[in-house]
């Protein structure tokens, strides 16, 4: 990726684009208009005030946008700032910040070339202001940090580290060796080392972040929670899963202690809990994973209400963890709630609802409730057939086939028991028993009842037990909404 200069903006910085050095008011009078200089200055002041107010509003609006939406807002903001600087002669630093903000927006949306172009322009413009504005020095460090991230994402790790080291050196000179603003640079450097698989260097930098944040803000601060989250991710990439879970738990505890504060969104705490639950599940700590995920479920219900797609998804994952811990009744209760939510959120013929029908139907098979099982599986069958989802349809047909086989086997066993004794409790016909008497291989006598040998009944029972095991394993294997769920 090569840096590209934007000539027009460099020229604007030096005053090019307007005739000589005359003010706009003087130009108007020179063209023969009757507007006095004072009148023009008053109008210019009013226009600038409106434009600056709009610039501030756009800045706030950009914070609430998606990465793609933020780009559009920042483009408008840059155009407005060009008018303020090039036409109304406002401070050039306004334009520096506009270029930087747009470059950062491109970076967040993974448009690295565009990001590099705008950040390079910002760096050049800002460098010309060092002798005029003190705040430009720390802002220079900020631009260098963003450029370092940009090079990292482009795969140029050597240049990325070089830029970040320059940024850190400059920031320490301006703000001090132990200032908390250094931490963002440490974190960026840690990310580069993680890409290089130098995990020890990465975690050492993050421990520095933790120490600085703890000294500056306290052990129970949101900044320390962020350090814990960074350490958790670093240990995860290091494949030290125990420590990753440990730091994620610490972060969650800090967030929970801060739960009443307005600065901590409920969904942010829930996201931390969901990630922790996923890691605990992979570590086969199912009960802990379930407890944490239920906390996330409550947080989502509080933040978004019960009837919300995000809440519904978490409830479904809670049900699947119940299944993994063999708590089938609780899983069924949770899935019944999911069924109602999905019917409201997605509609009667939605694929989401069809998948839930399939899981509930399988649960009824495990619980030996063939009538309910068939009803739910047929509902799923209808949805998948209408949508042309052949793979899911095949799975449902397989379950229905197994269900029919188990019902047939149960009927045969019931018939055998009926032949063994009549309604009065007397033994069955001696003649029938004698007729079916025969010797088993090896000379041992085998006794058949109603055409079925005792040995046959035992085999049938064994098959039935095996069949149940197959249902359970098959269910867990293809619970498609949670890929982490493994066979028991």
From TrEMBL:
UniProt keyword terms in alphabetical order: Repeat, TPR repeat
Keyword match Chloroplast: no
Biased composition (Acidic residues): 1-19
Region (Disordered): 1-39, 418-451
Domain of life: Eukaryota
Polar residues composition bias: residue spans: 24-34
Positions with biased composition (Basic and acidic residues): 423-434
A Pfam family assignment: TPR_8
TPR repeat start and end residues: 96-129, 141-174, 225-258
Keyword Repeat included in the entry's annotation: yes
Full protein name: Tetratricopeptide repeat protein
Source species of the chain: Halteria grandinella
């Amino acid at each position: 990726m090569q840096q590209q200069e934007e000539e027009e903006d460099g020229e604007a910085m030096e005053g090019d684009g307007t005739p000589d050095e005359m003010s706009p008011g003087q130009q108007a009078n020179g063209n023969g208009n009757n507007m006095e200089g004072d009148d023009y200055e008053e109008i210019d002041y009013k226009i600038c005030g409106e434009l600056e107010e709009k610039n501030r509003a756009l800045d706030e609006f950009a914070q609430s946008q998606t990465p793609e939406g933020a780009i559009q807002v920042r483009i408008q903001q840059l155009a407005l700032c060009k008018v303020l600087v090039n036409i109304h002669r406002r401070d050039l630093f306004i334009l520096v910040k506009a270029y930087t903000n747009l470059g950062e927006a491109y970076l967040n949306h993974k448009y690295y070339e565009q990001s590099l172009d705008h950040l390079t322009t910002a760096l050049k413009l800002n460098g010309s202001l060092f002798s005029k504005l003190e705040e430009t020095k720390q802002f220079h460090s900020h631009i260098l940090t963003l450029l370092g991230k940009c090079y990292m994402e482009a795969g140029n790790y050597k240049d990325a580290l070089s830029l970040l080291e320059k940024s850190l050196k400059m920031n320490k000179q301006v703000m001090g060796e132990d200032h908390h603003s250094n931490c963002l640079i440490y974190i960026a450097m840690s990310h580069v080392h993680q890409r290089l698989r130098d995990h020890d260097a990465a975690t050492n930098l993050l421990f520095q972040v933790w120490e600085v944040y703890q000294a500056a803000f306290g052990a129970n601060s949101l900044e320390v929670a962020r350090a814990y989250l960074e350490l958790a991710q670093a240990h995860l990439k290091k494949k030290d899963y125990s420590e990753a879970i440990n730091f994620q738990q610490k972060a969650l505890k800090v967030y929970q202690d801060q739960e009443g504060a307005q600065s901590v969104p409920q969904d942010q705490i829930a996201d931390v809990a969901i990630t922790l639950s996923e890691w605990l599940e992979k570590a086969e700590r199912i009960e802990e994973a379930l407890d944490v995920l239920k906390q996330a479920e409550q947080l989502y219900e509080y933040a978004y209400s019960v009837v919300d797609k995000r809440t519904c998804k978490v409830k479904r994952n809670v049900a699947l963890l119940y299944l993994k811990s063999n708590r089938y009744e609780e899983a069924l209760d949770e899935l019944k709630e999911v069924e109602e939510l999905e019917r409201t959120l997605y509609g009667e013929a939605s694929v989401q609802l069809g998948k839930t029908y399939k899981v509930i139907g399988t649960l009824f098979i495990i619980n030996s409730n063939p009538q309910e099982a068939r009803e739910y599986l047929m509902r799923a069958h209808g949805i998948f057939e209408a949508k042309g989802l052949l793979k899911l349809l095949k799975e449902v047909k397989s379950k229905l086939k197994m269900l029919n086989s188990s019902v047939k086997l149960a009927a045969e066993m019931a018939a055998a028991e009926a032949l063994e004794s009549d309604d009065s409790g007397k033994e069955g016909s001696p003649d029938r028993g004698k007729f079916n008497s025969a010797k088993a291989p090896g000379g041992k006598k085998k006794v058949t009842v109603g055409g079925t040998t005792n040995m046959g009944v035992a085999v049938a029972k064994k098959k039935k037990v095996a069949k149940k095991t197959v249902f359970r394993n098959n269910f867990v294997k293809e619970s498609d909404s949670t890929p982490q769920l493994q066979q028991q």
